[in-house]
Amino acid sequence: MSGAAESGISRAFGLLVDVRDTLVSLGLVMGEGTGWVVLSDRRAMATPLFEHRDVLVEAGDGPGLGLAAATEGAAAVELLPDRLLTLGLKLAGEWTEAGVRRRAEKLFSVRIDVWGEGAVLLVLSTYADAWLTLDLRERPQPEVAAENAPRLATALKLISELTGSETDPGDPTRHARPTAEGFGDLLAEGAEYDDSWGTFEVPGRWRRLMTLVPGSAEGQDYESGTEHPVRYARVRRGERGAGGPGSAAR
Question: Domain ranges in the chain?
Answer without folding.
Answer: 3-185
